[in-house]
What does this fold into?
Amino acid sequence: MRQPFRVSVLAQCAVVGLTLSCGSLDRRDATTGNVIFLHPDGTGLNHWSAARMYWQGPDGVLEWDRLPEMAVYRGHMADQLTATSNGGATTHAFGIKVQGPGSFGKDGTRPMRSLSGYGGSIMREAANAGHPVGIVNDGDVAEPGTGAFLAQVDDRYNGTEIVRQMLEGRPEADDAGPVVILGGGERFFLPEGTPRCTDEVRLDCAVHTDPVDGGGPNRTDGRNLLEEAVQAGWLVARTRGEFERLREALAVDPAYAPKVLGLFAADDIFNDVPEEQLIRLGLVDDTRVPDDRRGRLVIWGDRAGTLGYDPPTAAEMTEVALTVLERHSRERGTPFLLVVEVESTDNLPNANNAVGALRALGRSDDVIAVARQFQETRPATLVLTAADSDASGLQVFSPPRLDAAGLVAGISGNPTGRPDERVLHTLDGIEGRHTPPFTAAPDATGRALPFAIAWSGAEDVAGGVLARAQGLNAPLLGTLFSERFDNTDVYRMMYLTMFGELLPPSGTTTERAVD
It folds into this structure.
């Protein structure tokens, strides 16, 4: 690690008009450290408020609340006000505003350089400079929030090419790879027609099929990337049992530092469809007690008795990723970069699945707890969290409108003064429409109040998002970035911490084209 700052970051900046103009810090004067970027996708202030009410009570405190530094996040794209997942992730990874539609490690289909001038993302620059890097996602690992840090493609849905680049590097680039990849997306690693594993887990069979649509392996090039990964030195885990054996091996041997590829679902680890559809599909766990705040619906993993049952949580995967990365970091003598996306906090609200959204937010808060605990014993670490947009405009409605049976009813909206144009908005209870309301955890006086969830629609919107941080360089959110924290500033914060250089604010996307 380099020596602590001997100059003030703010002393390097001047206000030019309404724009902060910052010179580069001398690398010799800067402390560098680990970066943990947490991306609970789609989480606006409204989501966190709902999560607090449900899990801790309206007077309670989340782990998210305990992150000491904050700034209002501005997430617009180069060509639209609401971010796309792929455009937002590319902006975080490159520090450059890009087109919303289509961008995945590129500006649309146009290659570009990052804010530092490097021909790739901050994760590729870090890995190729010798830093251990890794990703975690409770969706599939090819999701933009993790995939855009390692791959550059013309089509965000080309998962088979995205994961190939993760393992092998980008076309015509001599890329050093990550040391940990944990999430879903097994189907992108296996060829079409790969049989389902039955009694024994093998590399030539698929552990997972999608419990909603039954989908499985879909590579069309005939390659089995799992077999190739093992030959290249990766440890592959795909079940809860294999994950637990990995955790045990890490606990037993403090020097054990494998490269880990964990794939715990065919696609996303969660089932991002409405509550009513989960019930129709039989994805219900009736063994749960009535007061279990998780509810009966099977949101993560597959049905009981399958190999995909009880997958690792995002927090568990993050804990393992941090252990692996720290050990590689010690071996190399360089800080690490970890990007964790909780994709379920976006997809489940987009499915208007209220109980799934609340559970996903609880799981995201668990990830923040893991990161905070790690940082508190490793001061030279930045924990930074932000979302690129607000998923479906979730709002708490309390007291909820109930029908004669005590079930959540609808509310009127968008009045025009004409009764025949009356619009009725449905509300969600614990299992969707026309079900009992949620009950918040008790407040400071012990009252447990009911509520329902309302949605603005089934799409992402440009809502109120906060960036929050703890650790190395985190106070910049309350100083340098107190008036303006742009989505490009996620990159600048990470770059300062990884490389000890505060880059000037981003210009336009057209200034960073690759020659």
In short: Confidence is low (pLDDT under 50) at residues 1-29, 508-515. DSSP finds 13 helices and 19 strands in the chain. The chain has one domain: 22-512. Residues 22-512 form a domain with the Alkaline Phosphatase, subunit A fold (CATH 3.40.720.10).
